[in-house]
Amino acid sequence: MNNKWYKRSGWLAGLSLCLSMVACNKSDQIIVDVSQEGAEVPSSLYGVFFEEITHSGDGGLYAEMVLNRGFEDGNLPSGTVYEDGYAVSKDLPCYSNDSINHFKVKWQDGKAMNGWEVVCAAGQPVYKVVDNQPLHPATPHALQLELGKSAGDVQVINNGYWGMALTKGSSYKLAFYLKADAASDEEVSVALIDENNQPAASQNFKITRDNQWHRYDGTLVSASTGNKYRLALTFKNKGTIYLDYVSLFPEETFMDRPNGMRKDVAEMLADLHPAFIRWPGGCIVEGLNMANRVKWKETIGDPVTRPGEYNLWGYRSTYGFGYHEFLQFCEDVHADGMFVCNAGMACLFRNGDFCDDKQVDDLIQEALDAIEYAIGDTDTYWGKKRAENGHPAPFPLKYVEIGNENIGSRYAANYKRFYAAIKEKYPQITPICALMFSPYLQEAGPIDIIDPHYYETADWFYRNGDLYDKLPADYPYKIYVGEYAATGRSSLYSSLAEAAYLTGVERNADKVQLVSYAPLLENADGHGRNHLIVLKNDSVYGRTNYHILKMFSDNRPDVNLKTQVLPAETQPIFQTQGILGIGTCNTVAEFKDFKVTRDGETVYATDWSDLSSAWTASQGEWSLDSGILKQSKVEGDSYLWLNGKELGDCTIELKAQKLEGREGFRIFFGSKGEEQYFMADIGSHTNESVIFGERNAAGNVSLFDYRNATSVNTYRWYDVRIEIKGNHWKCYLDNQLEYEYTYQPVIRHYAVSGYDKQTNEVVIKLVNGENTPWNTSINLSNMKSVQAEGTQITLSGVDPDDENSFANPEKVVPVETVLKGIKPSFEMVCRPNSFTILRIPCER
What we know:
Elements: E1 7-8, E2 17-20, E3 28-40, E4 46-49, E5 80-83, E6 86-89, E7 104-106, E8 116-120, E9 127-130, E10 142-146, E11 154-158, E12 164-166, E13 171-180, E14 187-193, E15 199-206, E16 213-221, E17 226-235, E18 240-250, H1 263-270, E19 276-279, H2 283-286, E20 309-310, E21 316-317, H3 323-332, E22 336-341, H4 357-375, H5 381-388, E23 397-402, H6 408-425, E24 430-433, E25 449-450, E26 453-457, H7 458-463, E27 478-481, E28 483-487, H8 492-507, E29 512-517, E30 521-523, E31 533-536, E32 539-542, H9 544-554, E33 559-566, E34 579-585, E35 587-598, E36 601-606, H10 611-614, E37 615-619, E38 622-625, E39 628-631, E40 637-642, E41 650-661, E42 665-673, E43 676-683, H11 684-687, E44 689-696, E45 699-703, E46 718-725, E47 728-733, E48 736-742, E49 749-756, E50 761-768, E51 774-781, E52 785-786, E53 790-796, E54 815-819, E55 825-830, E56 834-843
Parallel strand pairs: 1-54, 3-51, 4-19, 4-29, 19-22, 22-23, 23-24, 24-25, 25-27, 26-28, 27-29, 30-31
Antiparallel strand pairs: 2-55, 3-33, 5-6, 6-7, 8-11, 9-10, 10-18, 11-17, 12-17, 13-16, 13-18, 14-15, 14-17, 20-21, 31-32, 33-49, 34-40, 34-42, 35-36, 35-39, 35-41, 37-40, 38-39, 41-46, 42-43, 43-44, 44-45, 46-47, 47-48, 49-50, 50-56, 51-55, 52-56, 53-54, 53-56
Helix pairs in contact: 4-5, 4-6, 8-9
């Protein structure tokens, strides 16, 4: 095992997992049967998912330092027109339900000069972005400088991605294109300047003045270090010049690839040892509309010829980190490639338009062409293109995911066609179905792997460490958890929640074959969220969840071992008790015929005539008309509470209908106030599911094992029934059981173990998500022998809110120590807020 990455310590005091020869009181037992192998843990399990989001590529992994290098940022998103300050998609039916989404995005003038400024010390410079002098048809825009109309020298300055970072003595490769007339000056000066306009490097270029495009290349060597530099091209006030494709790269990129990756960021990814890499992402695969989707053929070849595209995360992608670069990066880090193709439908949460059958045929061919580019022989059309682009040998493409987060019958029908075509021509490729745990899986036909995604609160992940234990052993589909992340504020607490979830993933590795966190990368100036890796132009660090994922990846056993966690004390069964209520979230809805029964007797019934005396509205806009109660506020949460009735076991019945909005309606129970309650959430997750939920001090927590796919139709009255018996709850719509859940407070202790056949070690992973120590007894049974010393790797923090930062990038990182005094049974204490791995040399 390569241990260079872990912090080392030669002493035991302060470790997150302590070895003690004195038995602790009330110690839980962790029993590992070394002789009983469980599922194999596949080498494919831990990978990464790349998407161009929060400048993860442009301004992140991709090493280009110039922002808007081709002056193309002013282009509207494909498939849109400009109307009253918006880029507006054509009104087309959404594939999920034929609704019209009327999708548009705010669009401001001046985007063509994004990242650029033109200055003249002697007055106003004369310039504009034009498209009548194209360097290449795919990138027609250029900056026109009417230098002869300026009173002095003109500087064209690029600010880069929130400044350019330079290192003293390092070289930077410069390229730009000029088209100059005969009246222009003979030279242009190019410099890297600081905030005070002082140069760190400069070079003069002699200009060819024949009204033709010419490329100019140079190398700038920095004389200083800093991260607020800019690139400035200085022109004399003579003639007219067109400027296009201004590019600056560090000379040293990852693996010294041209058009390559930023070395420090790429090394962080390589250190995860990903088994696979998914590209080009999730929602951008689908696009704002079908025309806006990623088209892989536009992302290969000379970067000058790549048109780029405004993506649905709010900025324009250069396509610099394109399909070829993705495949090359897979090869460089010894990962399998996973290409995601569009399945014939735009993003459900944007325009949602979709293709007809003929257009789907074209998309299927586009996917087959992508496979041919990656692995086809060089005598094929796209295999030859790959060779022309510098890589005759096949790339390590193994998977093709068909769509992303798609739903419904239209997707199922399209998937079936993609699957058949791919398997017929490339049987060695594994297709992945974008459906989650969906009733449409049977319609989709042959399926190798499904792809559920989880963006839930930390408490959901703590609650679902046993999620895949609940799947039947003969579940027919393998699982790729393509995207997961604990939402909310990034912290050690949320990262340990993800670790708790991964213990269940690894324990069920016969069912879950692949897993990747998302989103992967975040430029700190790009306003992201809980990404694994955070960067700015001169530095990069891993959040606590990066280190946890790396610990799992680096310590993946070959097989699972039977592991039991026996609590020292039995936890009492939870009993539901509290007041009742109704409400909505981002929805207008109506209610009537509310009734509560207990043991066959009616506890409360209303026609809302006693609304003012029996009920209290705390949020929302509630009104009564002809016996129908209406909540009219479409934004935020609303609550209406039934006064004075704290109930446990009972049945709640009512009729409800949704009139407008994104979600459905909610029935509250077991409430101790607005900040502590349970609910039946009908139309949850933007009207995708019927589930239960909890509100507590940590916020809203979804309570589900596997989300169903039940949505709520507008203008339809539903008969709703909620049955509450102790800690077991059922939700019925129109007398059909939609969801049931058994609730129990969670003690945040988790364990999984396996055996590493290469090193002959038992590998035990322990998560303590509590803010108190976890007393444990480790018991190894049915083994030949065990050595007295092993290895211990621990990540922990004093405060569950701890997190790494640029100021303290190693505040919470793994510490490796020698584990001494190992016996077949020994007592240990897990420190609060910790994830620990034990590697115990053991003969079986």
